[in-house]
Every structure is written in structure tokens, then in C-alpha cells.
Amino acid sequence: MKATTLLLLLLQAPAVLGHGAVVFPPPRNAVDKDLSPWNGPVPANPPSVESMTGWCPVPNSTGGVSGQNGQACFWFSNGCAVGCDSCDGASRGPIPNCGSDPSKPCPPDSHPTGTGRNKVGPGVACKSSTGVQPTICDPSLRTVNRAAECGAEDDWYFYSPWRAPGAAPVFDSCGMAGGHKPPEGGFGGIYVNTTHASLGDKGTQVLPRAASGVSWAAGQVYEVSWTIEANHGGGYSYRLAPADGPLTEEVFGKAPLKFVGPQKLRWRGGRAMGGDEIEFNGTYVSAGTVPAGSMWARNPIPRNDFSQTGQGFEPVCVEFGMPASMCSGMEDGSGGAEPTLEIVDRVLVPEGLVPGEYVLGWRWDCEESNQIWQSCSDLTITSSK
Fold it and tell me: pTM to 2 decimals?
């Protein structure tokens, strides 16, 4: 694609906040799916993540749109930077241009308010550095502001979680409701309190086991999927831990899963349900990750709001003759968009796992924000076939 065409796509893409969650296997984080309004019809134009409605609509197995994920996309850790030993719950990360006019950027800001042209890392999101440094500098692995020289003054996202996959701290390995402790916060840091969970609850402490009916055999390859409610770039990994716990980063880190074969984007359940799907070679990184050698996938959906987040990358669906808007994430309540897109991967279950009940952990380390989304899904591991 010509550079001018890509630039137009970047300028036309919507500016949104980010939330996401696993769809398959069904996550514990969908704990509210049996309650109203999520057990009813999805609004024609799903509300924004700032609307205090808690909607995380996802594609269902028949190609429609469902509230079956409850508030799963509101379980995350906010204010988590590379080089810090804990999340502060407040610092959203830099917003180099607060408005829509690139000629009027936000002024530099050393306070972690979530605005300004500042690197939100040690000294801002935390008092002192742990000594951990960003490891991703290659522009082909980055998802926003890729034209900036690594670590330069204008490399605003230098300390974002994706810049050292798995190294930034989290509040909880299954996420925290709303991403922080009360009170409610901005940038989508909300949770509609229910009888199941409340703002600030830790997933490993309040989310009960949720039988998914999914059974995997050690040594085999299986399909997993997740959706973006709205996009913060970065990348993600899947990992396993015994269901009897503890469900910590250390334990999940003992069984990271490898991605196998091509990635897939699927709309409305894919071709089997009359929808669309495409397969393509994903972009992966295993160097400079935590745990060492663990395999992470770059988020294949570009944010691409050029005036806000700098240079992105070409939407892969364009290569298949589709409009760029089909693979640029949900518009987050700005009108008309439906959450019909799933990001589909195949993962290899390690040989030698002891048969039993396990939790599949998913961790999305964002780049455009200091936020980490998490989901936990129950499944059974059987012996090798």
C-alpha cells in the first residue's frame, strides 16, 4: 500500500480507549453474564466504556452479538509501567495530543494524570526504578508511534507494558475489577458493582471456578480467541496454571504457551456462520520477554489514529481487499460499530503436563497505555493422545 493511502487510513481511524477479554474458552471474568442487562439483548450501538454500563459485547457461536461475556473486559491492572515494582492504579500513560488537532499538542506533564507528552515510568508512575529496562525497540514489533527512535524524547510509550512483555507488575493475575481500587476513575476505569463483584476486587479472590466444558490433551494444538472492545495496541500471551492455585504470575510463568500456525481474524462466527475470516502470518516475540523465552503475539489490530499516537502499521485485512475499518478495532460507542470481530490463535499445550483441572491465563500488555488486561478460563487437561 502506498504511504499516502496508509496515512489517510491512520487519520481516519477513531480515537478510543481500550478494553478486551478472552471469548473462548469462556472466562471466569464473565461472572456477571447471568444478570441484567448482560443477559438480555445487546444495544444497537454498544455504549462507551466510560458510560458506567459495563457492556463487553462479543460475537457468539452462531454469528450474532451477545452479552455472554458480562463485564469481562473491565478486569485489568491500571498504572503499570516497566521498571516499577507495583501498579499505581491511577496513571493512564501519556496522551501526546489531548485533542484532535495535531498542531496543538498537550504540554509536557510530569504528573501521572494520563495527559501530556511525558514518559510515564519510574519517577512518575513509581518513585524509583527496579532496574528493569524496556526490551522492544524494533519498530516492526511496536504498535504505536513507531517512527520515534527507541528511548528518544518523543518515544512517549517507552515504559508501557508491551515494551518489555511480561515485565510490568499487575494487581492480580486474573485482573482487578475496574483496574484499580475505589473510587471510580477515568479512562474506562469503572466497574458496575453486582452481587458477584465490585470495583477493586481481585479476580483470583472473588471469581469462582466456571466450568467451560473445554478439555485439552497435552501435546495438542487448540484454538483460542479474544476480542477488543477498544484498542491500546501492544501484545499478549496465553499461559496455564493448576486450578488449585496459587494463580500468580510466578506460577503462570512456569507454563507459557507457544503460538502455532497462522493467526486468524473472524467476523460473525466466520465462514461456517456466514461471516468472514482471514488467515495471515502473525508477528511474535520471544526475546526480552518475561518469563525468559516466553512467546508473545503482537496485537494484529492497529490503533492507527495518527494525530494521537503517531505512526502505526497497515491493517492486515486491507491485503484481502477489505476496508481498513474492518480490522481497526471497535469504535467504542461512537456509533454504528458492532463487536463482531474475534482475534483467533492456535496454542500448543505442553507435553508432560499432569492431567487435571487448569486455568488458562491471558495477559494483554498494552503499548498506548500503562494498562494490562487479564482473563482466566477454566479447562481440563488430559494425557497425551
Answer: 0.92
